[in-house]
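Backbones bend. Shown next:

***
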Amino acid sequence: MSAIVSVEDVSKRFHLYASPRQRLRDALSSSVKRSYREFWALRNVSFSLSKGRALGIIGRNGSGKSTLLQIVYGVLRPTSGGVVTQGRISALLELGAGFNPEYTGRSNVFMNLALLGYSRPEIEDRFGWIEDFAGIGEFIEQPVKVYSTGMFVRLAFACAVSVDPDILIIDEALAVGDVFFQQKCFSKIREFVSKGTTCLFVSHDTSAVENLCDEALLLRNGEVDYRGTPEQAVSRYSSSLEVPSEKKDRYTSDSPVPTKILLRPRDVQDYDILRPGGERHGRGGLTVRALRVTDCQGKDTLAVRRMEALSFFLLLEAGERVAEPSAGIHLHDRLGNLVFAAGTYEFDKRLPSMGTGDQIVVEMTVSFSVRPGEYTFTVGASSPWGNVRDRVGQLGPIVVQEGNTNFPPFYGVARLPMSVACSALYSQNKPELTHDRSS
């Protein structure tokens, strides 16, 4: 299969000056001697991508990731080497890039798509979809200089994916914006790739790279350090990140999950966080009437530190007789992946059968042994054999903060219980060494 993107021995050199005065002096001088310092952002980078493939590009800050994407898109010219692309390219390289801050969101949409070669009637046909996907409401008619960071990325991403590109380039822009929009964006990217769009994706979020990409490129100091599976690239990248030595001896065992006294229905209803008109489905007869979320001290919150717990209080109400009801919770990350799902059945907690009008409060306390970030969650009520009566989704976001340094770092989605041990050193010169374990 022919390559849609082909990068051959690309190198990029920049001239660095100690001050703007030196730059101006060199520009005005006819002397051969220059005062700049050469900096090679990229050296001999090569790769090719076929149709429908997604390449993740990872590396530390300054490794050349953004420079590479700008060269592929054509914003920068390489010092040496070449890039060949086939088809329409759409890119989200920098937050708000290409937007005129004095223009309204509508005007910027028309201007951006006109620069991509679309006629006014074609843009008008697409505008309704862009407006709906961005979801910024009446702000579409306001100058973009008044937009929040989240509004910027919503409109920029909606424009980028509205043109049905052959090549989609994204540079870290999806790190901003709320978790609901991020899930929407990642779902759209997956849809594009499944339909044959080639994607180049730069991110510090290694979970996103593993989830979205078929292969990954690890850059180190402007050179290709590794190209292969996302899992191997992420593992190699993660192994280069050092843990501060002062933290290594401070790690403790997992903290216990606290338990609380169950609340009354009124206590849950008074602090209900369910949104009217939210995402909801089920056959009915048993309803999640209200939901309250608290921390270990009983404070109502959706923020928690890593390895600490939140308690979810579900008020269930029966609209008919329900034998052996159950309640459960699903947790989703910013990519929309299911991180955790469990409920009363899984923990062998049998709820009493309920008659019409009966109410019961169910508490589920979850310890957040996951990486810091934003998560959405779903709560639900069922009857036996997985018969969903009511399910309420797109709740949150729950913000998991780092905060707690008493636990070792981990890479991936969740922290699993783990211990480390090794034997004594076996040497050919000292065969008498015995097998000894230390932890």
User: Anything to note?
Assistant: DSSP finds nine helices and 18 strands in the chain.
